[in-house]
Amino acid sequence: MHAGIETKFHPMSQTKGEKGIDVAMAIDILQIGLADIFDVAVLVTGDGDFVPLVRALMKQSRIVINAYFEYEEDGRKSFSNERLKDACSYIINVNALENDKEHKVHFKSFFKQLDY
Predict the structure, then answer these.
(1) DSSP type of residue 88
(2) What would the pLDDT profile of 8-44 be if each residue is shown by its tens digit?
(3) Crossing angle, helix 21-34 and helix 51-59, to 10 degrees?
(4) Contact present, 62 and 32 (Cβ < 8 Å)
(5) Collapsed DSSP state (helix, strand, coil) of residue 38
(6) What is the mean pLDDT of residues 55-63?
(7) Cα–Cα distance measured from residue 73 to residue 65, given in angstroms and rounded to the nearest whole number
(8) Closest Cα partner for 61 from 44, 82, 38, 91?
(9) Among candidate residues 91, 89, 34, the one with its CA nearest the CA of residue 64
């Protein structure tokens, strides 16, 4: 909120899945990008629908980083769309950092282990 980012609530349909949240997010991000509020955008998503947003931001000299999680659990895969990765300035596979000796300490500092 201190950076001028407004929190929004977009209810999702329980039967039809997401409805317009990616468009609403893209509009908000583009507006603050055009207002020269940030230099670097970090998109934590794998959704290829954000490619036009990335291209528009980069035309405005913004650096765009795609941070994504790549894993398989219960037969479902999480990954980032190849077009999205290609469009961004940088990509970060968060899961790969966990097993990378050089970045293991950094990875642990990002996440706190919860004891249930």
Answers:
(1) S
(2) 666 666 666 666 778 888 998 999 999 988 999 999 9
(3) 0
(4) no
(5) coil
(6) 95
(7) 25
(8) 38
(9) 89
Residue 63 — pLDDT band, cuts 50, 70, 90?
A: very high
> Structure tokens of 76?
């479902």
- Please give the pLDDT value at position 116: 65
H-type alpha helices, 16-93: 21-34, 51-59, 82-87
Beta bridge partners of 13: 17
| CA-CA-CA-CA torsion sign (103, 106, 110, 111) | positive
Residue 95 identity (one-letter amino acid): N
- What pLDDT was estimated at residue 55? 97
Cα separation of 14 and 16, whole Å?
A: 6
Pairing outcome for strands 63-68 and 76-78:
unpaired
User: For residues 92 and 103, is the Cβ–Cβ distance under 8 A?
Assistant: no
Coil/strand/helix, residue 78: strand
Query: What tokens appear for 113 in the block?
Result: 């282990």
pLDDT of residue 49: 92
